[in-house]
Amino acid sequence: MDDRTLDPDDARERLAAWKGRIDKLAADTKAMSDRFEQLEVTARDPGGLAEVTVDNTGGLVALRLTREIERVTPDEVADTIMRTIRAAKAQIADRSEEIVEETVGTDSAAGRAIAERVGRQLRARAEEPGAPEPDEAEPEDAEMRPVFEDRPARRARPAPAADDEDEGDTTIWR
Fold first, then answer.
1. Contact 55, 93 (CB under 8 A)
2. Residue 155: pLDDT band with limits 50, 70, 90
3. Distance, first Cα to last Cα, the chain
4. Where are the domains of the chain?
5. How far apart are CA 41 and CA 130, in angstroms?
């Protein structure tokens, strides 16, 4: 039989050391949670069409479009927005894994599990099913327009009122 387990002083020391490790883990976990809560990433597309901001869950919280969108097709704008959102979500995943490493660390099974889970969840949200990888993208002239044949016809817009302050201008920019 091990006499150390029966020694009250040794048991108190081991209990104090265990409590110290638990207290440190709790403080590190709180710090990780606080940093996750404040995490946001803003990404811009290289062409200058869009800027997106995603929160710590990968959710879109802001979208800013520039006048450059007037020079491209709506499909190109939509594709650019989606690519930029995916890029921002990937950055959130990377930053989240760094936060886990910096706070609770990945040397424990719990730290590794947290880092893996957070990275996997955010990266899954960053990927669009069937989306080509950047090096597999189709050429620019490829036809990628959706078919809207089954959609109901749009109703015509009413004519602008006589007191309409934009005087018939249809632009969205003011």
1. no
2. very low
3. 85
4. 17-130
5. 24
10 Å Cβ neighbour count for 108?
11
What is the third-level CATH fold of 17-130? Answer: Ybab; Chain: A; (3.30.1310)
Q: How far apart are CA 41 and CA 82, in angstroms?
A: 15
Q: Are 68 and 51 in contact (CB under 8 A)?
A: no
Task: Please tell me the chain's helix, strand, coil percentages from 3-state DSSP, rounded to the nearest 5.
Answer: 50, 10, 40
Which of 57, 66, 63, 70 lies closest to 42 in space, CA to CA?
A: 63
CA angle 56, 60, 66 (to 5 degrees): 130
- Residue 95 pLDDT more than 70? yes
HSE value, Cβ hemisphere, 13 Å, CA-based, for 171 = 7
pLDDT tens profile 4-32: 556 888 888 989 999 998 898 889 889 99
Structure tokens at 137: 């993208």
Asked whether residue 111 carries a pLDDT value surpassing 70, the answer given is yes
- Rounded to two decimals, what is the model's pTM? 0.62
66 closest CA partner among 86, 81, 85, 53: 81
At 2 the three-state DSSP class reads coil
